[in-house]
Amino acid sequence: MKLLRRVYEGLLAASEAHAKWEMQIARNIVSSRKRLFILGLIAAPALIFAVSFAASGGELPHILGGKSAYAPAFYSTKVFLISVIIGLCAGLITGCIGAGGGFVITPALMSAGIKGILAVGTDLFHIFAKAIMGTAVHRKLGNVCVGLAIAFLVGSTIGVTVGGTLNRAIYEYNPVLSDLFISIVYVLLLGFLGIYAFVDFMKLRKSGVEVGAHHGESPKGTKAATGKVGLPARLQSVSIPPTIKFDMDLVPGGKRISAWFVGAAGFIVGLVAAIMGVGGGFLTFPIFVYVLGVSSFTTVGTDIFQIIFTAGYASISQYAIYGFIFYTLAMGMLLGSLLGIQVGALTTKVVKGMYIRGFYATAILAGFLNRLFALPGKLVHLKVLTMSSASVKTFNVIGNSVFFVLVGIFGIWVLSKFVGNLRILRGEV
Question: Is the whole-model pTM more than 0.90?
């Protein structure tokens, strides 16, 4: 149980670090007229297409929605608007909770009828587009250890290639099996995170101790492994050349570790990122801190650096060139998330942190239940499970309803708190 607890705390800390990066990127974009203008130029074709399609009332070519490469999913104005709402909710979770809301994007897109592989590719492209628009050569990237970053990126490049190839191979073999595979991965991850987050919330509620809105504001959330004992010490004692020196500013003489271990960590992160459609930051942090013994200070900078390249390489080389990115959805999610992050971040000033943490656990569990209730239908389609079509439909309706109702309630609650406290937020009390 202690090991599982440390894994959860590592994943949560990584989610917080990624959320801080997303909030900084959002601020960089909305505070620059030039970047907003560029965003408008990029998003304009998607908006024009959505409006023209709705006005024409015509059907799209038959190839769209097919199994072949270069054939995305069926598109409509409704799907575009749903993507904006999904981005908005993910942004609200990121800004309000201070933990990554990206976990709900792929399940949400799949619930909206998007094929799993398209949801993965689109989410990766959305992360990459947000990164290149909002990230300049930021001062915080001064924390990057070049040696660690290079070794990590070599491994992540190989991992992304393997993960992307695996996803495409499964999809080409059977699109339903592809959806089942991605759903199972999300069920395992979200189930683990959601249960632990909910248990934490219940403990806080029972104790009655008030905490900050963001997890890292509590004393418990600020703990970090020192890397001086246990597995990190053993790995750092193995001298397999080439070795990388790091944390020179924090430890006299710095620390050393074999580049092979760092590359292996990069491979794992890249593999998972390409399969799930995430930046990989939620794994980089716990692996760097708790396995390799890298300081949190160096890890955050290196993690931000790798996300840009990992998401960029994965989205372009493994999905875009094969036709598995839905650009219109990506633009919708980008627009929604930029607004959601700003509103969510401001709302934390007028809402008790305990309630926000409760909603975080609820949102994660909603994604878990959504993918869990989708599994019977996939198994029936693959003839692994026998069930009536009415039962399959009922499971799907329950899963989708629970997900969108819970996430929708969270979104409405945050927006209502934001609007209701505008005078306070403006300093007009």
Answer: no
